[in-house]
Amino acid sequence: MADTSQEQARQPFGAAASEWAIELSGINKSFGPVRANKNIDLKVRRGTIHGIVGENGAGKSTLMSILYGFYHADSGEIRVNGAPHAITDSRHALALGIGMVHQHFMLVDNFSILENVVLGAEDSALLGPSLAKARGALKRLAQDYRLEVAPDAIVEDVSVGTQQRVEILKALYRGAEVLILDEPTGVLTPAEAGDLFRVLQTLRDEGKTVILITHKLREIMAITDSVSVMRQGEMVATLETSDTSPEQLAELMVGRRVLLRVEKGPATPGKVMLEVEDLVVTDDFGTPRVKGVNFAVRAGEIVGIAGVAGNGQSELLESISGMRDQKSGVVKLNGNPMSTLGDDGAHRARLAGLAHVPEDRQRMGLVIAFEQWENSILGYQDQPAYGKGMVLDINAARAAAAERMKKYDIRPANVRLKTASFSGGNQQKIVLAREMESDPGVLVVGQPTRGVDIGAIEFIHNQIIKMRDAGKAILLVSVELDEIRSLSDRILVMFDGHIVGEADPATATEGELGLLMAGIVGKEAAPTAGPAGREPNA
Amino acid sequence: MSARRPLPRWADVALLPALNLLLALVISALVLMIIGRNPLEALDTMIFGAFGYGEGVGYTLHFATNFVFTGLAVAVAAHAGLFNIGAEGQAYIAGLGAIVVALWLDNIGIPFGWLLVMPLAMIAAAAVGGLWAFIPGYLQAKRGSHVVITTIMFNFIASAIMVYMLNRVLKPVTTMAPESATLRGAGKVPQLREFFDYFGYAPVNMTILVAIAALVAVYILIWHTKLGYAMRTLGLNPSAAVYAGMSNSRLIMIAMGISGALASMIAINEVLAVQNRLVLDYVAGYGFVGIAVALMGRNHPIGIALAALLFGALYQGGQELSIMMGINREMIVVIQALVILFTGAMEGLFRPSLETAFMMLGPRQKTEAIARSTAQPES
């Protein structure tokens, strides 16, 4: 990396002398013509938890990848402990005491925890001495930072929260003084997230520095000491957490005022529109993922299904919407059982009045290479409105798309644009507009705001409430517990393919829901997961 | 955050194929120089042979007709996400349908008898060739056997069946060669030279009108019908097709059937119009070259028409080259193979460097790139 900074070192040269663990100044990084980072300055004080927030594509991950040596900045300076360094790769970053815990764990599933910690840091060709040394070190780390794990447990047998601990231990074992965590709570239950935050606080109290990348403002408010906000490749503000509020952070992230709370009146449920009876669904490999589920959704209410990702929600959604065959059980729409013959179940579900906003818009809900108007009729292309008989009435489809574009404020307002050119939020609006405007009796929504900007989230939530108030039966599946709590009229919690409990969003605490989501009810926690506690900020 | 982006459309459609063709010609020139021939003279001979006089043009159009059919066959399957390598076998076995109908109706005594026989023979050929592609489609849709594997295998099966049929079933007792009886009347498809002297003795015939109609029909099918919309959805994102409630298995079988039926029209162009009888191996690789035609034509009828014309010119020009310059037949095949190699199999050779080059230039690309990168969702 070119060291173009004219600045002189402000701190006296020396290891522990600097107040700042990390100083970035004037960092620029372009990918082709895209400027992912523009003149970024960032200082992280030693011994603090420093949050970095920003929407998708704001440049958070790029910046951290530069610090960790994955990318090289086009210009700018990195100082670690006051001394300038040109970090060449992640090995170099580690040598400087910078460790990273990735969003997707980089563990060998069928190795023990101890082996995973040692992996890549072996002292010699013989494994024995390294493992013995690591075992001692792990014990010490566990004492110092309250990071207890069972060293001989196999990684695939332990909980996700524990796997994350292993990642943290890996970094600490390699001597990390600065720990970068990228969206660490995305895969955790609330209780596990609470555990993680306690660990991070201990790390800080022991003098380590933590950089926390997240899009969840609540987490920033709960545990960071200071916070930096990024927007469109620029660093827009660095604040003391105690001096700011979620509203202010949201405004800085988006660049305009946003409403974080969802306003909704009480529900007035009508007749049962969707019934699921003893539903059993298997995944592509024949493993049962939904194991006998019963529930009903009535007109004019939102039923939310909470749960940690991968507990059968995806298969449940796909089965109800006709995309996946059920092994046994019945799905009734408006009292009529759905047929399961043939591979066009989704077509029959739509005819029966079910609209489906899929969990993964890019994999299922859209054809990304299509023009916008083509996606605006996906699933409804056979309707007479879009042409009689075999012929596709392109003009009618484009007109309908343009109308929805206006109504849902989809930008840029050009139906001929390729869908890939729309932002995540606008892509999601294309799907929502299509499904909601089909005027369904039942609306099934999966992860409505995944990868969507805060501004669009507000809009999407309001649309869902509007559908409810228009008397639609809505089934909402989300891994964002906040979303479930603020939108739902009833909450069902799914764990390991079962509905393990029902809760009233008005009275249920996050802690209670968290216990249900973790399957604590009637099940023992994994031995290495640590005591299941309540989140400190609940 | 991947830095590379697709090329602008004009570069993808025109510049890239042109570069591929240029490279093929440069290497062909080197080959000609190695054997001591003047490449410029050869190029001149080829262009004159293909376009310089009526008979040459007629031959070029005749070959191009074949390439339009196989190119469209590959393209229709490709739009549904299927790689039909079996156009060769589908066109070959379709000859059975064409010749049976044509022989049966050959001696009806009505004027313009071919106007009746040709459509019937087309239907029969399309039925046989379509069925030959439908079977791999069925196996893919219902049994998960990959269509690339099965269509290749079906080429061999078709070849074996044809040898058997010609030797044991269709060969009149009076002939020695493995070929069917010869058409003498209404079974023959009229040659354009019967109406235009310009074409000399060239075999270009009424089937070229069918090819033009097929180009238009495929355009309408793919972009203006609900079936075409569903096929494109399946081809671009099979999960989205399931989500949309399309029956993927049904679409696969239909797309393969249409693909095979298109390839079958070669039987009309070759068997009924030129040979006037069924002979061994009359498809002569047109099915495989169709893959290159579809690739170069970007699976679009206009592109396919142009690519078919190019390959037609290459075939005809190659013949001219061997006659006029005495370059032996094998050398011509080498040159043709080079063009197929660079425009077909190695079609993407220049793509990465061209994408990089485009990324460095042009403000419009820049804004597009920014739009794209902000559109990219995470997690």
In summary, what is this structure?
The complex is a heterodimer of chains A (about 550) and B (about 375). With about 550 residues, chain A is α/β, with parallel strands linked by helices.
> How many distinct beta strands of chain A?
20
CATH level-1 class of the domain at 64-311 in chain B: Mainly Alpha
CATH homology group of the domain at 259-353 and 440-538 in chain A: P-loop containing nucleotide triphosphate hydrolases
CATH fold label of the domain at 64-311 in chain B: ABC transporter involved in vitamin B12 uptake, BtuC
Tell me which CATH architecture of the domain at 64-311 in chain B applies here.
Orthogonal Bundle
Cα distance spanning the termini of chain B = 12 Å
Low-confidence parts of chain B? 370-379
List keywords for this structure.
heterodimer; A: 538 residues; alpha/beta; 6-stranded mixed β-sheet; 17 helices; disordered N terminus; disordered C terminus; B: 379 residues; mainly alpha; ABC transporter involved in vitamin B12 uptake, BtuC
Commentary on this structure:
The complex is a heterodimer of chains A (538) and B (379). With 538 residues, chain A is α/β, with parallel strands linked by helices. Helix content of chain A is 31%, strand content 24%. Chain A has 17 helices and 20 strands. A six-stranded mixed β-sheet of chain A has the order 6-7-8-3-9-10, sandwiched between helices. With 379 residues, chain B is an all-alpha fold. In chain B, 73% of the residues lie in helices and 0% in strands. The two termini of chain B are 12 Å apart. Mean pLDDT of chain B is 90; it is low at 370-379. At the A-B interface, helix 10, helix 11 and helix 14 of A face helix 8, helix 9, helix 10 and helix 15 of B.
Furnish the topology, listing elements before pairings.
The complex is a heterodimer of chains A (538) and B (379).
Chain A: E1 20-31, E2 34-45, E3 49-53, H1 60-67, E4 75-80, E5 83-85, H2 90-95, E6 98-101, H3 113-118, H4 127-145, H5 160-173, E7 178-182, H6 190-205, E8 209-214, H7 217-223, E9 226-231, E10 234-240, H8 246-254, E11 272-282, E12 288-298, E13 302-306, H9 313-320, E14 328-333, E15 336-337, H10 345-351, E16 354-357, H11 361-365, H12 372-375, H13 394-407, H14 424-436, E17 442-446, H15 454-469, E18 473-477, H16 481-487, E19 490-495, E20 498-503, H17 510-517
Parallel strand pairs in A: 3-8, 3-9, 6-7, 7-8, 13-18, 13-19, 16-17, 17-18
Antiparallel strand pairs in A: 1-2, 1-4, 4-5, 9-10, 11-12, 11-14, 14-15, 19-20
Helix pairs in contact in A: 14-15
Chain B: H1 9-34, H2 39-51, H3 54-79, H4 87-105, H5 113-143, H6 147-170, H7 207-224, H8 226-236, H9 238-243, H10 248-275, H11 286-296, H12 301-324, H13 329-345, H14 351-360, H15 363-375
